[in-house]
């Protein structure tokens, strides 16, 4: 609890200092506005994926952003309705309807709180850097791919608008950073489109914008075990996907801003945000990586103010200024997301010089993470498969570092072997074949002072070695165990079945 208090105090100090500085406050306000504009088409498209009314996604984005700004552990990170969550809940909505979706969102929020308090955030330490790099590169590719449909089968005017928007995004920051380039591009090109009545796809074409505020809603589902059996698998999947994506995004923002965030608080904060979202009839969500990059990298926002205002501006824009927002050309928002994609990609990681220096295993892990993520369009799947691949490669590498050496013959009836390396299931499986059972003398000493026993598989292997020698009437003495290895060996030896 002390760490949480310290982090909260630091956040409050950052917010207060931003409120006292007109320059910093302007950055936060404009960052929130740009994010809100970018959220609108995304939330609508994710609603369509989930099979719900666009208002469900838009209201979810509002409640998620506002709530996580207060309870989250990573300042400046944006949470809203996301594609990952939409993909998880789409079958449920299709088969059972909106009420079961809301019940699932509420249960997922509870699960996220429980999992976070149980320490799930600590598992982040087991995600290798190569998986993080793959995660970032896959994110950049997915952001780019999702923009392609907006550029196919559209009026030719879309392409000049896209080029103009990208020129503004590239060159305006070189002249001034007083106003975020994405905001300038949106305002200028929307005005041009309206004045000249260009017939191009706009935000209004993505779906109907709401005209009223969100209201409290309790799902109309029977409170039975049958209902729980329906929603529980979806809720657990949603909770895990949301936590993984949010914690990975938080770590990414930590690296970009060179600051530390409270991952446990971020985890249960996501749960609270989903509960609030469910109460207001939203589809739930998690951290939005693309919009977070807009807020942190493009706009330069650093505090909870920008996250809170992103939600507030979103509600104002879609409810109060819906007719104006509907006129924003999709070409401009596509240009913004393409630039976010370019800025997100870790170009150094795919530089031929870097690839030549990098161990092959690290490159394989990165490529597997990218391939699975892009193929499934689910960042969580990519990270999970990437971590498993890294574990397998690491296990193979460590296993090959283990050796058995004949080091001494104190007398004609004694032979001493030294075993060196880390002994676990991968390395100990071949250990049994490294001894000369038939040719060795009466007494065999196995010195493990240069090794460490990590698991039951190794103890079982040592038992099998002893058994093989005993079958030939020979004695085996195991020496040199460190304290942890000795304790594990004493506790497990002879208790796992002969030869196993």
From TrEMBL:
Broad class of where this protein is predominantly found: membrane
Subcellular location: Membrane
Topology relative to the membrane: Multi-pass membrane protein
Top-level taxon of the source organism: Bacteria
Keyword Zinc: no
Domain STAS as annotated: residue spans: 412-500
InterPro entries (UniProt xref): Membrane-Transporter-like, SLC26A/SulP_dom, STAS_dom, STAS_dom_sf
Pfam families membership: STAS, Sulfate_transp
Transmembrane regions: 29-50, 56-72, 100-118, 130-148, 154-172, 179-198, 223-244, 303-321, 327-347
Keyword check for Transmembrane: yes
Record keywords, A-Z: Membrane, Transmembrane, Transmembrane helix
The protein, known as: SulP family inorganic anion transporter
Taxonomic lineage: Bacteria, Bacillati, Actinomycetota, Actinomycetes, Mycobacteriales
């Amino acid at each position: 609890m002390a760490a949480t208090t310290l982090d909260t105090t630091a956040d409050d100090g950052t917010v207060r200092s931003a409120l006292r500085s007109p320059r910093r406050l302007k950055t936060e306000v404009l960052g929130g506005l740009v994010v809100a504009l970018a959220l609108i088409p995304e939330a609508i498209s994710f609603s369509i994926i989930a099979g719900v009314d666009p208002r469900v996604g838009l209201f979810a984005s509002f409640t998620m952003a506002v709530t996580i700004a207060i309870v989250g552990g990573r300042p400046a990170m944006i949470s809203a309705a996301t594609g990952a969550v939409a993909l998880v809940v789409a079958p449920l909505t299709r088969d059972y309807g909106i009420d079961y979706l809301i019940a699932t969102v509420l249960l997922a929020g509870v699960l996220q709180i429980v999992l976070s308090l149980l320490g799930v955030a600590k598992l982040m330490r087991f995600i290798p850097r190569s998986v993080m790099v793959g995660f970032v590169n896959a994110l950049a590719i997915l952001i780019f791919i999702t923009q392609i449909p907006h550029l196919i089968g559209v009026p030719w005017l879309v392409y000049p608008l896209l080029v103009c928007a990208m020129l503004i995004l590239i060159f305006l920051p070189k002249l001034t950073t007083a106003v975020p380039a994405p905001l300038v591009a949106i305002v200028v090109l929307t005005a041009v489109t309206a004045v000249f009545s260009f017939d191009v796809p706009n935000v209004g074409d993505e779906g109907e914008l709401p005209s009223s505020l969100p209201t409290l809603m309790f799902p109309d589902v029977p409170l039975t075990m049958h209902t729980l059996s329906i929603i529980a698998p979806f809720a657990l999947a949603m909770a895990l996907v949301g936590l993984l994506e949010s914690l990975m995004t938080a770590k990414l923002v930590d690296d970009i801003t060179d600051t530390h965030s409270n991952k446990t608080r971020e985890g249960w904060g996501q749960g609270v945000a989903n509960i609030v979202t469910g109460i207001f009839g939203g589809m739930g969500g998690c951290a939005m990586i693309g919009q977070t990059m807009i807020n942190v990298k493009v706009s330069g926002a650093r505090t909870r103010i920008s996250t809170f205002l992103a939600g507030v501006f979103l509600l104002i824009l879609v409810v109060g200024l819906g007719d104006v927002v509907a006129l924003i050309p999709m070409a401009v928002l596509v240009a913004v997301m393409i630039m976010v994609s370019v800025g997100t990609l870790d170009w150094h990681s795919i530089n031929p010089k870097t690839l030549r220096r990098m161990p092959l295993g690290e490159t394989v892990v990165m490529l597997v993470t990218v391939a699975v993520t892009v193929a499934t369009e689910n960042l969580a799947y990519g990270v999970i498969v990437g971590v498993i691949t890294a574990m397998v490669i690491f296990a193979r590498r460590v296993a090959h570092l283990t050796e058995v050496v004949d080091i001494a013959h104190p007398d004609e009836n004694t032979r001493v072997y030294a075993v060196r390396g880390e002994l676990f299931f991968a390395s100990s499986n071949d250990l049994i074949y490294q001894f000369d059972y038939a040719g060795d003398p009466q007494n065999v000493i196995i010195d493990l002072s240069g090794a460490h026993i990590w698991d039951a598989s190794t103890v079982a292997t040592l038992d099998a070695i002893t058994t093989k020698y005993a079958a030939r009437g020979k004695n085996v003495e195991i020496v040199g165990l460190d304290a942890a290895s000795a304790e594990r060996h004493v506790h497990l030896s002879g208790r796992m079945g002969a030869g196993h």
